[in-house]
């Protein structure tokens, strides 16, 4: 299908995108620039017309170099969301995709951050198409951010240079948010009505951005898919200085005797060191993630979470989520305390026994079921349409309810997005959690 070109004018310069027959699409739009282990700066104005027809590169990551060594879990997600796709990677990766309704004016804006355990992911992956949200009247934005060692390494030299340490990926997300506030009106979006949204590591990132009082007024609402709430203490961010021993060992494995050497090292050496340290240590996940830096996370999360930003919250999890009982418990606890709209995605994916696995709700929320190898049926598509309706209603007003939708009560037991042959509706959360905890099955 041949798409027509379209051009918008922004304060930074003109941008050429595409009309895909559903909305206007602009891909790979730069929102920041940063050197290796440097915090992002705002992009400069450009001359001429920026070509935004194709996806921009994602952050270099280990799976791009060592995909043949991936474990079964990552191979599962490769088949699910990346099979047959060719992605570009570059350290110049701070770009975003915009999906805008036709003739939009003061439309609600949804800024989405992907998951990937803070060490992988990019905005060009198969589920992430904002056309379904744009057709409902929202401007959708999907932003890249740095991951893995490029996103979360800590070092004394960083502290000396910036007065803070680590959290490059989290800072990228804040930079993207500031870009959206400054420039989304050129695409018809309302900069005063922004919803932050993320899934998995992206949802945890949104949670952290919601815990910093310095971000008050930057956005109105927050959606967290499989990542809202207070995790057990062992999984919480650690002080930046306590993670530096891990990264010193990493540097040694990369053959770098100085921070300057690491900044100049070939990416192949960096990602070879990732594989080597993973073989030596089992605590990498607790180091390649946000840290308490005194800036983005000014204090421990278990203190910050007592006073989150007063925004509207929508939080969900799946019936076979990662650490499902924990995910359900923390999401519900935070959500009930802060008057969130809660959902439990209880619609099993067809063709295998993985049920509603972690991330299975992504295609439903984006309306991209037809791109999957799975034989989704009528009930799946119906649920997908309802989920997108709920989401855009929430982004517009802070209330997901609307005509023709099962009622969803704020701060109450989670709305159950149920299996085929049943209707969407509330489910007693206590029973669901009890079954998860005692029998490993919410439907037992």
Fold and architecture overview:
There is one protein chain. By secondary structure, the chain is α/β, with parallel strands linked by helices. The chain folds into two domains: 26-48 and 56-234 and 292-439, Alpha/Beta hydrolase fold, catalytic domain (Rossmann fold, 3-Layer(aba) Sandwich); 240-286, no CATH class. Helix content is 32%, strand content 18%. Strands 1, 2, 3, 6, 7, 8, 9, 10, 11, 12, 13, 14 and 15 form a 13-stranded mixed beta sheet that branches. A two-stranded antiparallel ribbon has the order 4-5. Strand 2 and strand 3 (24-30) form a beta hairpin. The protein is globular and about 65 Å long.
Features of the shown structure:
444 residues; alpha/beta; Rossmann fold; 13-stranded mixed beta sheet; two-stranded antiparallel ribbon; 15 strands; 32% helix
